[in-house]
Amino acid sequence: DIQMTQSPSSLSAFVGHRVTITCRASQDISNSLAWFQQKPGKAPKSLIYGAFSLQSGVPSKFSGSGFGTDFTLTISNLQPEDFATYYCQQYDSYPYTFGQGTKLEIK
Amino acid sequence: QVQVVQSGAEVKKPGASVRVSCKASGYSFTSNYMHWVRQAPGQGLEWLGIINPSGGSSFYAENFQGRVTMTRDTSTSTVYMELSSLRFEDTAVYYCARGFDDISGFLDYWGQGTPVTVSS
């Protein structure tokens, strides 16, 4: 199975600032990488697919990059509603696997 | 608009089975794969498997093979996930999520989740 490792596991940031979350795959997954946002008690919400393509309706403050094994999610101009847990997921091969999550908190 | 609506919470005893339903609307049901993902309390996301509503074929994660069965009813645009021989550690919220049009591995629309509690 492909292991997905996110870093950091948690981070805190100020409103208005920018943060970057990293996701590393244990083997080459090309650009078969998605990002999700999850708030407490809610289902995950899809943000990005294909490593950098924004899901319909997702604001451009979210951006993704990377290819192969190393990927990043960047969130600019943080607002209170952006503080949540973020997950990456590979869909290159079965079984699809998720990172362990990164919890973003307000500083 | 695309909607994926799941059945309600379940409480089961160890060794029992649970079946969760997921009703899709707002798109052509047989055109998109459906995934199942679960999340134990305070934990991350775990992928269980995928079903093709068109032909009914499915693929299950090795951790669940032999215990999970995914089926579909095209007449009601509903997919089902049944998990048998339940253990305490199967306590989790179970989600279904639609696979994106041309990239079936991307989970674009998620159901609201079905809490399953395994308790004696």
Can you write the helix and strand succession of chain A as a string?
EEEEEEEEEEE
Count of helical segments of chain A? 0
Radius of gyration of chain B: 14 Å
Order of helices and strands of chain B: EEEEEEEEEEE
Poorly predicted ranges of chain B: none
Distance between the termini of chain B: 40 Å
**Assembly context of the chains:** heterodimer
Low-confidence spans of chain A:
none
Please identify the structural class of chain B as seen in this structure. Answer: mainly beta
Q: Give the helix proportion of chain B (percent range).
A: under 10%
User: What global shape of chain A is seen?
Assistant: globular
Query: Strand pairing plus helix content of chain A: what structural class?
Result: mainly beta
User: How many beta-strand runs of chain A?
Assistant: 11
Shape descriptor of chain B:
globular
User: CA-to-CA gap between the ends of chain A?
Assistant: 36 Å
SS field, number of helical segments of chain B:
0
User: What value does the average pLDDT of chain B take?
Assistant: 97
Number of strands of chain B: 11
Major sheet characteristics of chain B: 7 strands, mixed
Helix % of chain A is: under 10%
Structure description:
The complex is a heterodimer of chains A (107) and B (120). Chain A has 107 residues and is mainly β. Helix content of chain A is 0%, strand content 50%. Chain A has no helices and eleven strands. In chain A, the strands form two sheets. In chain A, strands 2, 4, 5, 6, 9, 10 and 11 form a seven-stranded mixed sheet that branches. In chain A, β5 and β6 (53-54) form a beta hairpin. Chain B has strands spanning 3-6, 10-12, 18-25, 34-39, 46-51, 58-60, 68-73, 78-83, 92-99, 107-110, 114-118. Chain B is globular, with a radius of gyration of 14 Å. The model of chain B has no long low-confidence stretch (mean pLDDT 97). The chains are: A mainly beta (107), B mainly beta (120).
